From TrEMBL:
<protein>
    <recommendedName>
        <fullName>Major facilitator superfamily (MFS) profile domain-containing protein</fullName>
    </recommendedName>
</protein>
<feature type="transmembrane region" description="Helical">
    <location>
        <begin position="89"/>
        <end position="108"/>
    </location>
</feature>
<feature type="domain" description="Major facilitator superfamily (MFS) profile">
    <location>
        <begin position="23"/>
        <end position="410"/>
    </location>
</feature>
<dbReference type="GO" id="GO:0022857">
    <property type="term" value="F:transmembrane transporter activity"/>
</dbReference>
<dbReference type="InterPro" id="IPR011701">
    <property type="entry name" value="MFS"/>
</dbReference>
<dbReference type="InterPro" id="IPR036259">
    <property type="entry name" value="MFS_trans_sf"/>
</dbReference>
<feature type="transmembrane region" description="Helical">
    <location>
        <begin position="234"/>
        <end position="255"/>
    </location>
</feature>
<keyword id="KW-0472">Membrane</keyword>
<feature type="transmembrane region" description="Helical">
    <location>
        <begin position="180"/>
        <end position="199"/>
    </location>
</feature>
<feature type="transmembrane region" description="Helical">
    <location>
        <begin position="267"/>
        <end position="286"/>
    </location>
</feature>
<feature type="transmembrane region" description="Helical">
    <location>
        <begin position="21"/>
        <end position="42"/>
    </location>
</feature>
<dbReference type="Pfam" id="PF07690">
    <property type="entry name" value="MFS_1"/>
</dbReference>
<feature type="transmembrane region" description="Helical">
    <location>
        <begin position="149"/>
        <end position="168"/>
    </location>
</feature>
<keyword id="KW-1133">Transmembrane helix</keyword>
<feature type="transmembrane region" description="Helical">
    <location>
        <begin position="353"/>
        <end position="373"/>
    </location>
</feature>
<feature type="transmembrane region" description="Helical">
    <location>
        <begin position="322"/>
        <end position="341"/>
    </location>
</feature>
<dbReference type="InterPro" id="IPR050327">
    <property type="entry name" value="Proton-linked_MCT"/>
</dbReference>
């Protein structure tokens, strides 16, 4: 069953709140910082850290895993923080955690300090990343929320492109890696303060306007109650988001090495990685704009099919044409999917509960961290990365089938229970 334009929950007349564009700039800069300074540059910094800290690659990989697990495991924290402390305080605390985390990375003299810094980076990422940003942008942009969220993810993908280049530049200028982490300490403080003030002011104005319009305050909803009463449709959406993140994680873990093993030059393989991230940035912005006209379910299905095609392309005979096809298919798929799934979440469920729903969905998506482990085991057993790419494609197709068949839930399906009724 395909969706109709009614899959979009926000009415066309929903107003743009005061300070919305300033909040978008601030939150987008923060997401640029996160994408550039954590996952997408740590891989470039690790060889130097391994050498200087006398670590092995098992220790280095454990730190990367702790970063991912903390980022997913801490997903409930932004929802709890915003409901109890407010947007401004939550973002300020997150920025402080980020600054301390980067400082720990900069002064690390042993693997244990590196582990602590990586874990704290994941917590900080969660506190100031997409969960609070999507909640704020959705509340302040009204009918333009899809465009705003698309721009937000696009800027983050630009950060993914720039992070490795920034480390290369700093490393060439200073000859070390500690100054690179110190750069992010200063950036976390400056950008974090800007984001906390701008987003906090805009969110306060939006929530006050919403409360006045509804004649009541927004109810706090325990996450355990959402778990207990969540319908099947939510878990299908969570599966789509998890599949998208799993494919993205597999991309960062194996595609470069896979292309090298297939005879692709290092320059072309590097270009493919950067090119895919650049395409994803453009696709996020275009997907956000398209989300104002096209049903979110349609965009999600198309983007997942593009991800499936990108994984299949990797198993074909490798040449310039297939690499280019992979870059376009993967970039469009991952860029649009992250935006479209959020729009489905907004359109299918109680808009006031988006913060909690997105937090739960992100927590479930922590399972995507298993992708590299499964892929590594399959590579060791078969001598090739092709099986994990085939498995990823099948997963995408399976979720597409579920999305096409599942019915849109009743508008009050998440709030029918007295335990979570407003």
């Amino acid at each position: 069953m395909m969706s109709s334009p009614a899959d979009t929950a926000v009415p066309p007349s929903a107003p743009l709140q005061r300070g919305a564009w300033t909040a978008l700039v601030a939150l987008s800069l923060m997401f640029f910082l996160l994408m550039a300074g954590t996952f997408n540059s740590l891989g470039q910094v690790l060889p130097s850290m391994v050498k200087d800290l006398d670590m092995n690659w098992s220790q280095a990989g454990l730190g990367f895993a702790l970063l991912g697990l903390a980022c997913g495991g801490a997903s409930p924290l932004p929802a709890l923080g915003i409901r109890w402390l407010g947007v401004r305080t939550t973002l300020a605390l997150g920025a402080l955690v980020l600054a301390l985390s980067f400082a720990a990375m900069a002064v690390a003299g042993s693997a244990s300090v590196y582990y602590a810094g990586a874990f704290a980076l994941g917590v900080g990422f969660c506190l100031v990343g997409p969960i609070p940003a999507v909640d704020v942008l959705g509340s302040v942009f009204g009918a333009r929320q899809s465009l705003a969220i698309g721009i937000y993810f696009a800027v983050g993908n630009v950060g993914a492109v720039c992070g490795p280049l920034m480390f290369y530049t700093v490393h060439q200028l200073t000859g070390g890696w500690r100054s690179y982490w110190l750069l992010w300490v200063a950036a976390s403080i400056a950008v974090g303060a800007f984001a906390a003030i701008a987003a906090g002011n805009a969110a306060h104005a939006a929530r006050r306007a919403g409360a006045e319009a509804a004649g009541t305050a927004v109810a706090r909803v325990p996450l355990r109650d959402l778990f207990r009463h969540m319908p099947l449709q939510f878990w299908v959406l969570a599966g789509a988001y998890t599949t998208c993140l799993a494919v993205d994680t597999i991309f960062h873990s194996f595609v470069f090495q896979h292309l090298m093993e297939r005879g692709v030059t290092q320059g072309l393989a590097t270009g493919a990685m950067s090119g895919a991230a650049a395409v994803a940035a453009i696709a996020s912005a275009l997907g956000g704009a398209a989300g104002q006209k096209l049903p979110a379910r349609f965009l999600t299905i198309v983007s997942l099919l593009a991800l499936a095609a990108s994984m299949v392309i990797l198993t074909l005979p490798t040449g310039v044409a297939t690499v280019l096809g992979f870059v376009v298919a993967f970039g469009c798929g991952v860029g649009v999917c992250k935006v479209a799934v959020v729009e489905m979440l907004r359109g299918w469920f109680n808009d006031a509960l988006l913060l909690e729903l997105y937090a739960v969905m992100t927590w479930v998506a922590t399972a995507a961290a298993l992708g590299p482990s499964v892929g590594g085991r399959l590579r060791d057993a078969t001598g090739t990365f092709a099986p994990i790419f085939d498995l990823s494609a099948l997963g995408c197709v399976g979720i597409v089938i579920l999305l096409a068949l599942v019915r849109r839930p009743r508008s009050s399906v998440v709030t029918d229970s007295p335990a979570i009724a407003a």
